[in-house]
From TrEMBL:
Taxonomic superkingdom: Archaea
Upper taxonomic lineage: Archaea, Methanobacteriati, Methanobacteriota, Stenosarchaea group, Methanomicrobia
InterPro entries per record: Ferritin-like (IPR012347), Ferritin-like_diiron (IPR009040), Ferritin-like_SF (IPR009078), Rbr2/Nigerythrin (IPR052753), Rr_diiron-bd_dom (IPR003251), RUBY_RBDX (IPR048574)
Key word Transport present: yes
Location of the Ferritin-like diiron domain: 1-127
Source organism per UniProt: Methanocorpusculum parvum
Protein name: Rubrerythrin
Record's keyword annotation contains Electron transport: yes
Keywords, ordered alphabetically: Electron transport, Transport
GO molecular function, one term: metal ion binding
Amino acid sequence: MNTDDCILSAFSGEARVNRKYNSFAKIAAGEGYDHVAKLFRATSAAEEIHAHRLLSIGGYLGTTAENIEAGIIAELRASNKSYPKFITIAENEDRQEAVVTFTHAMKAEAAHAVLYREAADAVKGGKDFDAEIIYLCPVCGNIEIDRTPERCPICGIPGSSFKAVE
């Protein structure tokens, strides 16, 4: 194991606990533990700082154009390789909730790759991505540009449930 391996391992851990602590904060807040929730959010933010610094020192951050291309590769890998395998495993174990979650994620990742390709084309032309408002489905992670659909095309929740991303 070398330093680069350590950086990747540390990043993976920091990124995982960042998301986990963020989820813990939501549970604590929902149970009325506002200060515990705040502590989890603060720790989550600290882990995000660590993860970002690790990406930086590891040389994993590039220009916007390079980062978009890396995003396309990651989204396509997830939608074409990882999630189909996960779905098969979950189906074989009769874990329907996992099948649904993996299927939603797979479809959302494929849609993300399309949006990243559009953004990459804009950046290559020296322009920003053409989007006034970007909406996020809180159930499946689908992203819609400038308007919400009547129902999410991936998970079916009402479009009114989508959240605008700042």
